[in-house]
């Protein structure tokens, strides 16, 4: 990992911290990706999300059918026309995601120190001691003592809505587990994640290909979020599939890093991908808690130096049910921006959260406040030092253009300041 300074402008006047945040004419430069779902699919809510600062709408195909997402997208189009705000469309693939199926949708209570069996028989009903899953190879992938996590949408770490299991015994295709914490699983679908175990399933599944070829082509998607990217070959395979479709030649592929395998091959994935999404929900399971920040900082820095956008997920989980983020979450968002993160992805907070609009608004305000103290000069010097001399022709032109533009703005503001000062002293209004 490359060492680098925290890109914080100094000094910060303590008095300015106590001043109320001023509404800015320009939105935060850090983009906000909002996942649209049950709580955020009406024209009214989507319009409010756009006005609050959402600039990319994510459609997560881990749940819901194409018709459901199409209806949401049609509402997005109406909201874009109504608000006159631009918004890109991101399709998020299912990938090799393991799921527990709960057809009845009745809440399932699991008690600590009891046994529960995971079975590939999807015909049976989910109960407190028997959970059907969508993968027949689980018994071959795990061994006694392995850790399995289950939670709605993604494992949250919350003791009441997520559960962690320890493999007790493998019986044929069934896996018997010991429940380690009491929890209630509610909803029709739960994600299952095995810590540091490779799942022998393709990254781009047949179902993903079908969705991209139909829904993706029909809606000319701007971004493809490739879930569980594990190798550079996964990106090349996805790009090859897009190129065959013709209409999606301009679609950008973002590699979603979910597990230790993607982490291990990060450098080669970064070379192939158009951008990176750090899926901290799953990464937080594969890595010890004290290691997550190290990977995040290293990955963000590498993306910055490669000139490729990097997106952080799972930032304000508590806002799924609460109107305000915790202090730690607010600081987490700010530090991600100061480290050079380009976008924040909101998942459950907007998909099924109670306050999707407020979440986007608050995250946007934190990003804007962080950008005010971001040390652009230090960042530029670090980048030039990393890239080395001489710069490429295109890089040199772009850099010169930005510096000249900033110089003109500085001259304009200086002149305006002088004129205002003279106006005050002479008592002659500039606009009279």
TrEMBL record:
Keywords: ATP-binding, Glycolysis, Kinase, Magnesium, Membrane, Metal-binding, Nucleotide-binding, Pyruvate, Transferase, Transmembrane, Transmembrane helix. It is an enzyme of class 2 (transferase). It catalyses: pyruvate + ATP = phosphoenolpyruvate + ADP + H(+). The keyword Membrane applies. It comes from the Eukaryota. InterPro entries: Pyr_Knase (IPR001697), Pyrv/PenolPyrv_kinase-like_dom (IPR015813), Pyrv_kinase-like_dom_sf (IPR040442), Pyrv_Knase-like_insert_dom_sf (IPR011037), Pyrv_Knase_brl (IPR015793), Pyrv_Knase_C_sf (IPR036918), Pyrv_Knase_insert_dom_sf (IPR015806). This is Pyruvate kinase. Belongs to the pyruvate kinase family.
């Amino acid at each position: 990992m490359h060492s680098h300074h925290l890109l914080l402008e100094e000094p910060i006047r303590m008095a300015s911290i106590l001043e109320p945040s001023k509404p800015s004419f320009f939105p935060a430069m850090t983009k906000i990706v909002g996942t649209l779902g049950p709580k955020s699919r009406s024209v009214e809510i989507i319009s409010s999300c756009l006005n609050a600062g959402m600039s990319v709408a994510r459609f997560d195909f881990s749940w819901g059918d194409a018709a459901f997402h199409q209806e949401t997208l049609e509402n997005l189009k109406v909201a874009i026309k109504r608000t006159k705000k631009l918004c890109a469309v991101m399709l998020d693939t299912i990938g090799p995601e393991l799921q527990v199926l709960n057809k009845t949708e009745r809440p399932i209570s699991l008690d600590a120190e009891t046994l529960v069996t995971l079975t590939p028989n999807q015909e049976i009903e989910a109960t407190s001691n028997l959970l059907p899953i969508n993968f027949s190879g689980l018994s071959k992938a795990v061994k006694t003592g392995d850790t399995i996590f289950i939670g709605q949408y993604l494992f949250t770490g919350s003791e009441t809505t997520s559960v962690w299991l320890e493999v007790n015994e493998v019986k044929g295709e069934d896996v018997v587990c010991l429940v380690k914490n009491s929890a209630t699983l509610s909803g029709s679908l739960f994600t299952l994640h095995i810590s540091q175990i490779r799942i022998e399933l393709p990254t781009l599944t047949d179902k993903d290909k079908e969705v991209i070829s139909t829904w993706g082509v029909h809606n000319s998607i701007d971004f493809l979020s490739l879930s569980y990217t594990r190798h550079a070959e996964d990106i090349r395979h996805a790009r090859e599939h897009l190129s065959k479709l013709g209409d999606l030649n301009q679609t950008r592929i973002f590699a979603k890093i979910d597990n230790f395998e993607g982490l291990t091959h990060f450098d080669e994935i970064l070379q192939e991908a158009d951008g990176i999404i750090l899926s901290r929900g799953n990464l937080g399971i594969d890595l010890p808690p004290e290691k997550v920040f190290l990977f995040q900082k290293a990955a963000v820095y590498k993306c910055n130096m490669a000139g490729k956008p990097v997106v952080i997920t799972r930032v304000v989980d508590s806002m799924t049910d609460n109107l305000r983020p915790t202090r730690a979450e607010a600081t987490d968002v700010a530090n991600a921006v100061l480290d050079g993160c380009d976008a924040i992805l909101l998942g459950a907070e907007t998909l099924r959260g109670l306050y999707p609009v407020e979440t986007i608004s608050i995250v946007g305000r934190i990003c804007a406040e962080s950008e005010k103290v971001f040390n652009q000069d230090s960042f530029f010097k670090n980048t030039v030092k990393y890239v080395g001399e001489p710069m490429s022709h295109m890089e040199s032109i772009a850099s010169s253009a930005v510096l000249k533009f900033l110089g003109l703005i500085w001259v304009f503001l200086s002149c305006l300041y002088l004129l205002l000062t003279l106006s005050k002293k002479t008592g002659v209004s500039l606009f009279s």
